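Priority: medium. Attachment 1 of 2:
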């Protein structure tokens, strides 16, 4: 089964300082979400929304290519049958 895992690259996140970006990167991408993580309404979600849109479009494109008759594969596997 094809799989993709997106991780933002190094650099400054939109609307945040380099220090804040590094802090978020180490706190969020270095571990799984925890139930006691705190919500902060000041966090700029616009960039995260575009990130999610990009991932969605890419996955949909990959799925469409995977389902394409010319790809030789389908959801049921090579040849299109079980």
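Attachment 2 of 2:
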């Amino acid at each position: 089964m094809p799989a993709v895992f997106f991780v933002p690259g190094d650099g400054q996140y939109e609307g945040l300082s380099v220090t804040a970006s590094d802090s978020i990167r180490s706190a969020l991408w270095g571990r799984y979400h925890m139930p006691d993580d705190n919500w902060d309404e000041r966090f700029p979600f616009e960039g995260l929304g575009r990130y999610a849109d990009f991932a969605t479009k890419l996955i949909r494109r990959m799925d469409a290519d995977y389902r394409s008759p010319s790809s030789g594969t389908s959801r049921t596997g090579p040849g299109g049958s079980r």
